[in-house]
Amino acid sequence: MAISICFAILLLMSRISYAYECNYTSIISFGNSLADTGNIKNLVAIHHSEPPHFLFPPYGETFFHKPTGRCSNGRLIIDFIAEGLGLPLIPPYVGDKSNLRKKEVRQGVNYAVAGATALSSSFHEARGVSNPTTNASLQVQLKWFKQSICPTSSDCQHLLQHSLILMGEIGGNDYNHELRAGKPINEVKSFVPLVIKTIIAAVNEVIKLGAKTIIVPGNFPIGCSSSYLAMYNNSDTKMYDNKTGCIIWLNKFAEYHNQLLQRELEKIRKFNYHHVNIIYADYYNAAMQLYRSPKEFGFLNGALKACCGAGGPYNFNETVECGAASSTTCADPDTYVSWDGVHLTEAAYRLIYRSLFKGSYTMPRFNSLCRS
């Protein structure tokens, strides 16, 4: 009898979802399509430019039931962070500025723009590579930030002391645009240190303005992206990881970026800012769990084939993007890791969020900063 009671108590405890109390009153976000909650949508409307494919259905169908500018079928990692902290979803900077002058600014602002790069557009244009989506590089986003909510140092310091700063993911598009333009990997690898330097400079800048907690994500395993798998489709089995089917050399490239980023973050932790929480978010390994064991996480249709696309072994076609009239969408996106071949499904982002912010894939661990 005693044993059965103890078992019942243990079973009940195992089902409790432990909450963490964190003293963050707002989220300030910079980055690209992995975090954009509507800036690109509003920029398109303002400039009357050609809307990109992710502003059409089926984007947003799962949670919002309409396209919001998010590059997924639903919520992103930043949305799950906000929900986990008990905050409203973070509004985009571009749009109705009257909102930003009211209470919403105290709960956070998102400056991330789909397609954004860490380096300036002029850097890539000088190399013969244009950005087809936006010129809102990291430096542009920092300028928006300082103009909108940091008009004086005292205003900025007070807000940032209690804010969670999400610095990225950024840098991935610096490589994506170049690789898709046909640049060889060794040439692209040569400017990774410059991308890292730009990210670190942005981290230093927000710390000087008053930030106390900054999360800096690394790059995802791009060798597992349906778009790259379709782009570099090859019969050479040595190019692919036996366990995941991902492209080995592309993942090694992402690891190289992440290693350099972690090394530089450790330097500023050690020598500059002992009073600041500088957290590395290991997007790479948090995502690799899903690619190594998709079915264990409920992704019954696997990790490499896109839910929304236009055929082929990975359901990705560069000329017929998700949202085009001739593209098709799977019946159950929750059973796929990849949404459109470039971005992930809401279900994948949710699991990655849990691994990062409730698990062990942040360094130092994020939940160690909060009271359980």
From TrEMBL:
SUPFAM superfamilies: SGNH hydrolase. This is Putative SGNH hydrolase-type esterase domain-containing protein. CDD domains: SGNH_plant_lipase_like (cd01837). Residues 1-19 form the signal peptide. Its EC number is 3.1.1.49. It comes from the Eukaryota. InterPro entries: GDSL (IPR001087), SGNH_hydro_sf (IPR036514), SGNH_plant_lipase-like (IPR035669). The keyword Glycoprotein applies.
